[in-house]
């Protein structure tokens, strides 16, 4: 295992003189507070567990920062501990932590599709930006696994992105998570896998949102039944910690793509809600005016690209002020929660100019411009 890590570090650390690290204080603070020396991303507020989503996001952020050493460590830990040593052969388990008998191991082997796609995207872009073709091969192998295990094509032409290979198909319905659909990813995947389902997923997503969210208020979960997208029978129409990412992805664009513009139009009503409420609620209803609580600072950070895309200057200023006020010792919120930091890195990182996506869904980090 040690030899494998040394080889991987060597593969990623060799870089041309022009490719220098991009100083990103929020990423450095996240590494210090939430990433172990071995490359494990730790959710301290949930029994120090690790989820594949966290590993995936950290790979993406390390790429934005041109942090090859961190990327290598995070990738190595992910492969060894979540994917039996090889992501090209096995999708990562979504949950790792401390079992009842005190051992630290995989607690649920079911892969999480959003994490799988984020890892594949990070590998694709690392291969391109760092000129490391083996990483692209690994990414394409992951996409092939997702196609085989987590995509369902219906007779009517509808393509469904399952949240995981197991546990979401039922006799009369399929449960779905709207926040697992990220436009820039799908554009990039279409370029490397043109026969895949990625273009159809993107083209169909705005209509899916329109069915689910006539007020622009996205639910955390939905279902597909009898050729229709509906509110999830298990959770109703409540939106919160999952759904906030839909607004984030819509804001990140690329805005020139018609499907992304349509997506943004279909969720623009949420800006009306936050303006009238004077805050971002923690929970909301997809089909009524009900809201509850005040969302954590990560919600305001996630909405920064969304407010920018909509031209909501007053709300953009309010969100920026709340995020800035929540910064304490380099991290955000009290206590500093893993998910808030992730949303800050996505939303504030974009707002601060550390990255963007081009019209083909490719990552354009600050250090490359």
From TrEMBL:
InterPro entries: 6-hairpin_glycosidase_sf, 6hp_glycosidase-like_sf, Glyco_hydro_8, Glyco_hydro_8_CS. Pfam families: Glyco_hydro_8 (PF01270). Residues 1-19 form the signal peptide. It comes from the Bacteria. Keywords: Carbohydrate metabolism, Cellulose degradation, Glycosidase, Hydrolase, Polysaccharide degradation, Signal. The active site is at 114 (nucleophile). GO terms for molecular function: cellulase activity. It catalyses: Endohydrolysis of (1->4)-beta-D-glucosidic linkages in cellulose, lichenin and cereal beta-D-glucans. Its EC number is 3.2.1.-. Belongs to the glycosyl hydrolase 8 (cellulase D) family. This is Glucanase.
């Amino acid at each position: 295992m040690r030899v494998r890590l040394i080889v991987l570090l060597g593969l990623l650390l060799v870089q041309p003189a022009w490719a220098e690290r991009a100083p990103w204080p929020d990423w450095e603070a996240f590494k210090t507070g939430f990433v172990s020396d071995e490359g494990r991303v730790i959710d301290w507020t949930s029994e120090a567990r690790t989820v594949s989503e966290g590993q995936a996001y950290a790979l993406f952020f390390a790429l934005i920062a041109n942090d090859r050493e961190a990327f290598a460590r995070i990738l190595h830990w992910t492969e060894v501990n979540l994917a039996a040593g090889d992501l090209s052969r096995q999708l990562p388990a979504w949950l790792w932590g401390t079992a009842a008998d005190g051992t630290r191991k995989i607690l649920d082997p079911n892969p999480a599709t959003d994490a799988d796609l984020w890892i594949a995207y990070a590998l694709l872009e690392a291969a391109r930006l760092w000129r490391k073709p083996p990483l692209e091969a690994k990414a394409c192998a992951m996409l092939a696994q997702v196609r085989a295990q987590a995509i369902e094509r219906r007779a009517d032409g509808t393509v469904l992105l399952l949240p995981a290979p197991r546990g979401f198909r039922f006799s009369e319905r399929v449960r779905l998570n709207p926040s697992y659909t990220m436009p820039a990813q799908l554009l990039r995947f279409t370029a490397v896998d043109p026969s895949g389902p990625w273009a159809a997923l993107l083209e169909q997503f705005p209509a899916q949102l329109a069915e689910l969210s006539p007020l622009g208020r996205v639910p955390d979960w939905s279902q597909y039944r009898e050729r229709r997208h509906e509110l999830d029978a298990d959770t109703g129409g409540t939106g919160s910690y999952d759904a906030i990412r839909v607004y984030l992805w819509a804001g990140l664009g690329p805005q020139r793509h018609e499907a992304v513009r349509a997506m943004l139009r279909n969720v623009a009503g949420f800006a009306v809600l936050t303006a009238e409420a004077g805050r971002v609620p923690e929970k909301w209803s997809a089909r009524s005016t009900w809201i509850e609580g005040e969302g954590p600072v990560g919600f305001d950070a996630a909405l920064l690209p969304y407010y920018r895309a909509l031209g909501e200057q007053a709300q953009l200023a309010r969100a920026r002020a709340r995020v800035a006020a929540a910064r304490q010792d380099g991290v955000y919120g009290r206590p500093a929660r893993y998910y808030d930091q992730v949303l800050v890195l996505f939303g504030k990182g974009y707002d601060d100019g550390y990255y963007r996506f081009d019209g083909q869904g490719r990552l354009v980090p600050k250090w490359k411009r």
